[in-house]
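Cross-check.
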Amino acid sequence: MSQSDVTSEKTIEASPQPDSKVPAYSWYALGVLVLVYVLNFIDRQILSILANDIKADLGVEDDYLGFLYGTAFAVFYALFGIPLGKLADSWKRIRLMTIGLALWSTMTALSGFAKNAGALTAARVGVGVGEATASPSAYSLISDWFPARLRATALAIYSSGLYIGGGISLLIGGLVVENWNEAYPDGGPLGLVGWQAAFLSVGIPGLLLALWVLTLREPVRGEIDGLPTPENPHPFRGFFQELFQVIPPFTLLGAFQRGLGAFAINVAGLVAFAVIAVFLTSITPGASAYLSDAVGLTAAGVPVSDQWLFLGVGYYAVFSWATALYTRDLPTFRLTWGSPAFLSVVLGYGTVAFMAYAASYWGAPYAERVLGADKTDLGWFLGAPSALAGFLGVILGGRMADYLLEKFQNGRVMVILFGLLASLPPIVVAYTTESLTVFYVASFLAQMTSASALGAAAASSQALVLPRMRGMATAIFFLSTTLIGLGIGPFLAGYVSAVSPGGLSTGMLTTLVAAPFGFVLLLAALKLVPAAGASVLERARAAGESV
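Predicted model, tokenized:
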């Protein structure tokens, strides 16, 4: 990269001593954060190996299982990620992460006492709220522990916890369920069966890890970039303001306070999303309707109206928050929602997540149900290799992103595009083969290639905003991965599986519809990101930022 092509990665994020050695404490702290993220995804992903047991025990269908894993979690994870992202930008990030870890671990353990779908859904919502604290805090902390030249690598190492945790969850869940059910075939203490014991076994250790996290030292915000930011004297004021702008029905009051014009826009958005939710409900009847028509049975699938209601509320809340942000913090709005480069990156990666989340969740149920795999074997031959594949993919992708950034201003976007395209062939092979061995190999390759995009996408989104906006940028980044990827991908696969004779194979192949949209978005990002990265300071100042 020539001297004249200096990006904001060099302008804003440049450390006063860019080549100085990273302190050992930064690597130690990063290791602790990786453990947190490992547990985060153990608690989140263990539903995959438990899906068939929950289905049999509670009498639910694949559409509910997709809803439980995706939408019920994703909407609350995304919505609370907004005010919690703001809090991560103004309060002690270590304390915030500790509280969140204790909350989601408690709710995971409580999932083990669920006796019906409603209780399990409520616990899942609680897990989503607690986990919303993790990545906004972690991304901001990592950006203050590591200089720009190593930031994609550090974020990739942190993100490896996603894949390690997801893989380990299959091993832990399989071992706990099979051993518990063998020891207590009629139910164990408190009447708990294997899948319930599995939730308890992964939830309780999180409370101990929370005490360890609390011992970490809080870094000075922005100091490593030469832009030290003083502590906010009123850290919770912004949090409650964001909460007021994003949680319905308070969103209507928040809009009214901004004027009649803002109120009218908000109401129009509410009506529009309600109409869309009703329309989607009308064209996607529930799985129970199909099954009762086909075989004369009553199935306990999730009412599809719940899926679209949850998503409708989520999208309306995000709309309310984004329009409020325009009024209250124009610089942040301009560099995020108002930036085509930023949106093309986060939405483009959202399509990668759309397919990856579906494959990650439905892999174990598919192999067990269609290919005849045992739970324990799934832990060793799907879970453990999946953890390795994700780890290798995210680390190699992060290193490649940092390397290509030195050569090309859009080098990181190239890695995201690779992650999208390279994951398609192995997904197709995995969900069309009749060989369990081929399925394992193809799943490994799909996980590794899709994982390669994460560190690059995360670092790209952080590089397009100012240091004080990093928590909010992270929250928006995860809106895409959750409300698009997690909120729709797994449900779509489960819904199609429940209503189609092709089952999970057809359901999973349906998720590939996201790929063309991602391809177009990332092509746009290749063109837009260099100019946007080079003009971060100028655009922020033009919007009223005092830098």
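The first helix runs from residue 8 to 11. DSSP finds 25 helices and no strands in the chain. Passed to J.P. for a second look.
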